[in-house]
Input
Amino acid sequence: MSKVPVAIVECDSYNREKVDAAVRTAVGLLPEFTSSITPNMRVLFKVNLTWQLEDGRSITTHPSVVLAAARLVQECGATVTLGEGSGWSAHPMWRKIRSLMFERLHGTMKGRKFHELEPLYDSLMSVKTVSELSRFTHPDTHEPLVRVEDLGIGSDIDVFSNAGIQDVADETGARLAFFDTEETVEIPSPTARYLATVPACKSIAEADRIISLCKIKTHDDAILTGGIKNFFGIVPTPVRGGFHSTSKFGGMINEMLVDVFSVVKPPPMVISDAVVAIEGKGPIFGEERRMNLILASTDCVAHDAVMCALTGKDPMEIPTVRLAHESGLGQGLLENIEVRGTPVEKVAQPDWKFSLNPE
Output
């Protein structure tokens, strides 16, 4: 059996030229990467834009990494979409949606009795996807209570501008896809350990090739987050919140994450930002850890296995890697992985701090 390649390239800053060179070197070590991208292909990059911290800590995929990856793919003749459905940043949007709905119904409900208003109130509060909004219309005009264009996405809601990704789109001509304002598609989960189907954003279903542009970080539930965990963002935020809470309550959060990952087809590739990683209480409240690395692979599971080795963990101790490997979604055993570029032994940092230990 041939080994699965993962590239590791050193990169000591977020200087545009250095990052561009590192990304090109990493992908250049993987002929399988660019050969799978053909002219006119629709390539979706799933970036990681969790939240923007006022203290400037680097917890999101750096725009210089996104820029380098987008340019490289565009040179193959493909069209590029940069997508995310950031959980934390989407909460203000949903507060605004509900506020607009109640505001536009104000004065039209007078005289209605409890048994009439309770189901309406409950249904308004339980809306979870933008595609559901069309069923709520004003009783007088029969027009939708809220349209996506009413939301005025910006400031605290606009994850792309806040993270510097809007600038990348402006410079490259890439399309932006905010997953929380897209229609969803129910996709059967091949693994179905926790979720029989996954409500994924429409961009995932329409892309010809998908690449995880992740940030290497510790995670308070998944231990480490990289290529696999990054795809949790393809599920709309309100639905994602329910998945997270119930799976954590039932001790199945990693099974749920792998179910979501399993619906991404064709199997996604990955380029990761490990110039500055996050250790400790990640993915948001941890501490910066300088690794000075860019990683790439055609296999997210193999990438995450190498990520484990770099941070002092056995990949089979990380549930998402183990479960994805056991499910045939990628290669999680280090002995079956070929590291190209910088050897793991040269740049590994086995003294990483984690917010929790494996179950």
Remarks:
- The two ends are 31 Å apart (CA to CA).
- The chain has a mean pLDDT of 89.
- The first helix runs from residue 16 to 28.
